[in-house]
């Protein structure tokens, strides 16, 4: 066993055990205080907008796994370096481990939801990592310094390999135990499972016949909860119990209002179909979904608080400190802006905001769709900003008129004859009036629209194309109910949403 290789393996094993034990402690204290989560959140808050856009564009809803995987790789790489330094007889390895622990402890302590115990996982992990590394280091050193082929070299190598393997396995096991422990102790899933949603006071109408155009491959009209897009900054999903939840409404109001989950359940609940969209969605992208939501209208709650005449914005806050600034008029103009507790007939999934999230038709999620919401501050745009505004995004965030081709696929092949070109179009809270398709440089042709559920949901569409052999470029554009035609001007998502016509190339054989 070569010295640096052995030292690196010792560092990786010690680092894995340190992170695993930190996960266990974080499971007891707070899952978000685990070193990788705490440091990852610092990275999320510090990265420039272009890097965040790159991550969403290339990794989509897997961006968090990529970030955590990268953080784990870096942590183990630095641990390997610490091990190499230690077997070389330099104490910088020990100081590197302690430095990493101090850095992650500082990150955990400065989280918006931090407590006095938030530093404990990082401290325990760092001390454990230092102890184990100093135990493994001498074993590796003895194995590599023994005469090659000697009994001492063989026995030392065997002991070192067994020790390394045992420590590494312990790190993997404790890491998994910590994740499970955190979920169990927080009780969010148990709380969710105990809830029976009440029948809405104002149920949603049945879906009209014909909302689906019946073309295989088109996005289903209602998105399954498991398939609903998820874009947020929470590397560790907040684990809240419904019985502990409450919402405070304060700020520029005549009186503060606080509502509990039990009071929300007994309110005049509304059930509505609403399509949500992420502002990071590219033209033709899939960061949009449609669900049937159950919740309490936000407007009447704000009316109870009595917003003062100077107020023009509501700053909503998640339990983990994330914020969004929503125009006050949008929440009070009668649209179905909800404190949602149900999604497609079941309590909100934990990943989508359990116990309560905001759903606001017509706005991108970054200015409206706060998950795990616990606070509404009535304020002004010149006094407060949501999380993404100082990072270069615009303050208002109305959803733009857009459309997408789902079938055929870009770069795909179809057989000559009748071809169904189909997809979805949306202009939340304005509605879709028409969808047109263009083949090559030909004229725009009207597509057949699926039935409209409401102006707050997308619509499916289909164009029947009599295709002949050749290569073709297909484009789609939509017109909303106000008569505005989707613009051809191409723009990236920042600062207020992508624009342009979705364009695909197909080959007819």
Label this structure with key terms.
3 domains; 5-stranded antiparallel sheet; alpha+beta; Sulfite Oxidase, Chain A, domain 2; 11 helices; Immunoglobulin-like; 509 residues
Helix and strand layout, with pairings?
Elements: H1 3-29, H2 35-46, H3 49-59, H4 63-87, H5 92-109, H6 120-145, H7 151-186, H8 188-193, E1 246-251, E2 257-260, H9 261-265, E3 270-277, E4 288-297, H10 298-305, E5 313-318, E6 323-327, H11 328-332, E7 338-343, E8 346-347, E9 357-359, E10 373-379, E11 402-407, E12 413-414, E13 417-426, E14 432-439, E15 445-446, E16 448-449, E17 459-467, E18 470-480, E19 502-508
Parallel strand pairs: 1-10, 12-19
Antiparallel strand pairs: 1-2, 3-4, 4-7, 5-6, 5-10, 7-8, 7-9, 11-13, 13-17, 14-15, 14-18, 16-17, 18-19
Distance between the termini: 60 Å
Helical fraction equals 25-40%
Strand order of the largest sheet: 2-1-10-5-6
Beta fraction: 15-25%
Number of DSSP strand runs: 19
């Amino acid at each position: 066993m070569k010295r640096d290789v052995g030292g690196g393996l010792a560092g990786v094993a010690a680092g894995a055990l340190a992170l695993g034990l930190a996960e266990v402690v974080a499971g007891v204290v707070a899952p978000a205080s685990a070193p990788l989560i705490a440091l990852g959140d610092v990275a999320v808050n510090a990265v420039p907008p272009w890097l965040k856009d790159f991550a969403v564009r290339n990794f989509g809803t897997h961006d968090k796994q990529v970030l955590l995987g990268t953080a784990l790789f870096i942590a183990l790489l630095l641990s390997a370096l610490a091990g190499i330094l230690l077997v070389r007889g330099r104490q910088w390895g020990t100081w590197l481990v302690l430095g990493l622990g101090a850095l992650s402890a500082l990150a955990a302590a400065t989280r918006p939801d931090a407590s006095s115990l938030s530093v404990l996982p990082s401290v325990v992990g760092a001390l454990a990592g230092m102890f184990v590394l100093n135990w493994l280091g001498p074993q590796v050193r003895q194995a590599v310094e023994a005469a090659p082929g000697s009994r001492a070299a063989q026995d030392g190598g065997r002991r070192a390999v067994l020790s390394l393997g045992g420590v590494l396995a312990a790190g993997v096991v404790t890491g998994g135990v910590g994740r499970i422990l955190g979920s169990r102790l927080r009780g969010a899933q148990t709380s969710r499972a105990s809830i029976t949603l009440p029948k809405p006071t104002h149920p949603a109408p049945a879906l009209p016949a014909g909302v689906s155009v019946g073309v295989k491959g088109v996005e289903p009209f209602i998105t399954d909860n498991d398939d609903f897009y998820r874009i947020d900054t929470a590397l560790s999903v907040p684990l809240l119990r419904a019985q502990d939840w409450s919402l405070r409404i304060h700020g520029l109001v005549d009186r503060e209002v606080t509502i509990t989950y039990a009071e929300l359940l007994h309110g005049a609940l509304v059930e509505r179909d609403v399509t949500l969209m992420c502002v990071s969605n590219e033209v033709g992208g899939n960061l949009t979904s449609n669900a049937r939501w159950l919740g309490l209208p936000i407007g009447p709650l704000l009316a109870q608080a009595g917003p003062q005449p100077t107020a023009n914005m509501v700053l909503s806050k998640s339990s983990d400190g994330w914020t969004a600034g929503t125009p006050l008029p949008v929440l009070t103009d009668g649209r179905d802006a909800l404190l949602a507790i149900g999604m497609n007939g079941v309590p909100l999934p934990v990943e989508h905001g359990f116990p309560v999230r905001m759903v606001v038709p017509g706005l991108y999620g970054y200015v409206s769709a706060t998950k795990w919401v616990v606070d509404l501050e009535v304020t002004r745009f010149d006094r407060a900003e949501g999380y993404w505004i100082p990072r270069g995004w615009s303050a208002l965030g109305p959803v733009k008129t857009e459309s997408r081709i789902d079938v055929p696929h870009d770069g795909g092949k179809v057989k000559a004859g009748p071809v169904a070109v189909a997809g979805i179009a949306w202009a939340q809270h304005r509605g879709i009036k028409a969808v047109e398709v263009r083949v090559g440089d030909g004229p725009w042709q009207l597509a057949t629209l699926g039935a409209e559920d409401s102006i707050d949901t997308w619509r499916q569409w289909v164009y029947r194309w009599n295709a002949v052999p050749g290569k073709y470029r297909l484009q789609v554009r939509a017109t909303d109910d106000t008569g505005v035609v989707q613009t051809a001007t191409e723009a990236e998502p920042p600062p207020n949403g992508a624009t342009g016509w979705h364009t695909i190339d197909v080959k007819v054989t």
